[in-house]
Amino acid sequence: FNESSIWRKRGISRLPIIYPVSMFATPGRVSVLSDGTIVVEVGGIELGQGLWTKVKQMTSYALGMLQCDGTEDLLEKIRVVQSDTLSMVQGNFTGGSTTSEGSCAAIRLCCETLVKRLKPLMERSGGPVSWNKLISQAYAQSVSLSASDLYTPEDVPVRYLNYGTAVSEVEVNLVTGQTTVLQTDILYDCGKSLNPAVDLGQIEGSFVQGLGFFMLEEYITDSEGLVLTDSTWTYKIPTVDTIPRKFNVEILNGGSHEKRVLSSKASGEPPLLLAASVHCATRQAVKEARKQLCMWKGQDASSGSMFQLPVPATMPVVKELCGLDIIESYLEWKLRKNSNL
Known about the structure:
alpha/beta, Aldehyde Oxidoreductase, domain 4, 2 domains, four-stranded mixed sheet, 7 helices, AldOxase/xan_DH_MoCoBD2
């Protein structure tokens, strides 16, 4: 493509990442009400990362170990409520992509406690019993149906590595400096994902956020340090036309690991680094443009191969590196070529 195209150049880059993740102590509480509904509290904040979705799934999974009639519909009976520093006194910060895992681990411990309290009732019933009837019996016999616990990793903090790789192909317009991401393919290790749909969205969203960091979000201040890019009119964030035209993401289903929560891994922050593949691919495209420019100017092609591509690689930056005089240089080269003929 680069040999046949004068005003557009393409670059491609494959980038692997290894991202260390740490887990910390996380609290949780599960309470079963008299009508069989379940209220769950965790120390984390739901901010779009799917925390509550995963917590509800873990609650349904862990209480489903009772295997009584109706546990297959427990998910519809679960409600997660936002806690505060009084109800969850040891709540940690929400960050590092491990809040969902830690909260699910804490909820699992709470549910295991409730299962231990409810199992004797099931055994005394002598036959199949429904979930609602079991809870009614527990209330009648004053069985405590609220359990709280603190998940504490065996090695504080527990650390593990996330792996991923991305291949990105970009096209640069040499006249304007515009960079278009043609295609990105990502392979990411989530361990055994707690929720593949949520994790897929996290990987895609994190990559696009990284795309903004590496390519768009120029942070400008004046001489006194006042931020000038203080709104979306002046601060460019990723939009619908920024994401790759073809975007393929595959979650690598890793093996079992006893120290991780159901063998899962984090999915929020690590994929952001994969967006560096777009930056590297852009550098390759700019390198091709500079090689062509050197040829037009009659210079050694290697003289344009060494340059620094800043972060973010905005349109003006790319345009300048491709050559502000690129059209004039082309016309002069074309005239010299025709005159030689």
